Amino acid sequence: MQRHLILTALARSILAGEATVDGIVDRASRTLGRRWRWLRPLARRYVGAMSGRVRPREREVVEFLDDDRGVRRAQVEHSNELSVETWLTEPGEMQPVAAAEGWALPVIETVGALAEWLLLYPSELEWFADLKGLGYKTRRPLLQHYHYRALTKRSGSIRLIEAPKPTLKELQRRILAEILNRIPQHPAAHGFQRGRSIRTYVSPHVGKRVVLKMDLQDFFPSITGARIQTVFRTLGYPESVADLLGGVCTNAVSGYGSLYARPHLPQGAPTSPALANICAYRIDCRLAGLARSAGAAYTRYADDLAFSGDEDFERCAERFSTHVAVILAEEGFAVNHRKTRIMRQGVRQRLAGLTANHRVNVIREDFDRLKATLTNCVRMGAGSQNRKGHALFREHLEGRVGFVESINPAKGKRLRRILEQISWSN
Q: What digits encode the pLDDT tens for the residues 238-283?
């Protein structure tokens, strides 16, 4: 028991600040009441073992200390002298990494404070976070936090849309507005950000000799609940608070395969796009650096990756795509190789439903089909063209025309004139 208390006390002192050798030695010395000679070598081993990781859990640090030979030897040699002079409770202060210190995030240091911030009772907070997976186990829709809609992909697999119910959605919107939206995104990320769009995603690749397109497989469900909890710990929230914030933003559901059965980022939650971009920040850094080394441009729109360059990049594009796949695998993601495309100037360079050969433009066939649909609506009535049964067909067409206007105003204006001639009275 004494040994476990010492390990726990040491772990909490290590987690009480930045993981530097001097900082760990100072805090551990205060905890044990003495600057033991073995503390500095231990601190060096810990920093080396945890390099590249941010804010490990307390139990992970305890396990590291328990396995460390230096700590074991010290406990044997000084068994009668080692004691805990200063006991820390679970770290209850905000401890953001250095980069996050200026982001003006709300200070939430206890579970009670988090419940109050979300206007919930603590028991309600635990129910919505569902860290015990009770929602996963129940078959009763009324007790589940999400509505589900499965879409079949061309490959035959499914994409599960997980739409949070109203109360949970409001909780997620607050987390998005007051926490996640204050976190800077990587310049290469163009999805789900104000002032950015598929147009800005495609623009850097216009007129390039070769464009490489790659696609991440199962982007949202590949991001685990543990990874999201790590994000909140990185922002400085104590472990208990970070776990609950992560639980509110993730979901697990049975009946749709193992990928969805574990806690993951649900596609359909307001917080998921921002969290996905945050989790992809390290990927963006590594791929942007790889692209610079090859003389290429790099952008990402959600799970779509685009690289482009001239003669030098054209010669190495295939080998470059292999390096990209390796980096993604190291970061916990997989490439959908069937969607990888190396597109040279002689073919249509298509990205996110747009062309990038000479300018950012809508695809000709898509424009022609929409124009024909609008024209037939004028001639034969809107109902004759609503073959997919859109409940709000007028709004659907308005949105499609608005999209064309945002990409090519001249073409959009032509479609708008036809749209305005449609009679919606029948």
A: 899 999 999 999 999 988 888 899 999 999 999 999 999 999 999 9
Burial 134-143 (b: 16+ CB within 10 A, else e): ebbeeeeeee
Instruction: Please give the angle made by the CA atoms of 12, 21 and 80, to the nearest 5 degrees.
Output: 55
Q: In what order do the strands lie in the sheet with 350-351?
A: 350-351, 354-355, 361-362
> Between residues 306 and 6, which one has the greater pLDDT?
306
Q: Which band of pLDDT confidence, cut at 50, 70 and 90, is reported for residue 100? A: confident
Q: How far is Cα 425 from Cα 395, in angstroms, rounded to an integer? A: 15
Taking the C-alpha atoms of residue 379 and residue 306, their distance in angstroms, rounded to an integer, is: 41
Alpha carbons 407 and 401: distance in angstroms, whole number: 10
Q: How far is CA 187 from CA 3, 196, 288, 339, in A?
A: 48, 10, 9, 24
Q: pLDDT tens across 78-99, in order? A: 877 787 777 666 656 787 877 8
| pLDDT at residue 3 greater than cutoff 80 | no
Q: Per the structure block, which two tokens stand in for 28?
A: 């551990």
Q: What is the pLDDT of residue 206?
A: 94
The angle that helices 225-234 and 272-279 make with each other, rounded to 10 degrees, is 80
Query: Among 324, 339, 307, 302, which Cα is nearest to 198's?
Result: 302
pTM: 0.83
